[in-house]
Amino acid sequence: MRIDEILNRGDEPVFSFEFFPPKTSEGEKNLYRALTELKPLEPAYVSVTYGAGGSTRERTLETVLEIQAAGHRAAPHISCIGATRADVAATLELYKSKGIDHIVALRGDLPSGAASAGELRFASELVAFIRERTGDHFHVEVACYPEFHPQARSPHEDLRNFKRKIDAGADAAITQYFYNIDSYLRFVDDCEALGVDLPIVPGIMPIGNFAQLARFSDTCGAEIPRWLRLKMQGLGDDVAAIRSLGLDVVTHLCDRLLSAGAPGLHFYTMNQAGLTSTIWQRLGI
What we know:
- The protein is an alpha/beta fold.
- The chain has eleven helices and eight strands.
- Helix 4 (85-97) links the parallel strand 3 and strand 4 (102-106).
């Protein structure tokens, strides 16, 4: 069964995991270990990220093939920023030749020092190009931002940009991570008001290293509620206490999302299985 059939069936939540291509031999060991530990959870699919300007294209493909060999359905990310149409077309044909029919289409980040944004400047243009070149071969997921993209000039503009991706042919969406459920519920309501009727899957970021999470959140625009930030900061370097609080917070968030009717959960694993597995067990999935 194709992933779009699973998502659109809607009779039960769809769970998925995200990994990034490892850069070192130790990173490869961590990835294989995480895949082995998470395999019994039987996710619907596993996505693999793509570096700025496609800088990890080959490693992304290698990782996708390894994930497929391990028995998972794999979904590579593909970005268009800094790329030509020929570059994107070649990547699409490569994935098709490997039997891949599910991708996550993103604008991506321009590599440091690059002079041009490329021929496809926006994710909506990438989605339209994918449909033009490959028809309905790929199930295409896109990103969305319940707390709004940090580069958007207004919430209204951000919602319109998201709808452009849907109108271009996207099948579903995965959100940036968040810790305030109201932001997700309001975003879904706003999308429905615009006529967007497709699965919007919450992205879930388990909390392990809070200092690292805080730095990344400040960059990507994901809000950490003040009460949570202060409690985490008050724990200092107590790794066990940070992990315990993080598990409580994220498990409660996931439970509320599923109870509210979210179509699934997409876990940003950071190539580690422990926190995701524990949350999964606590939820009784």
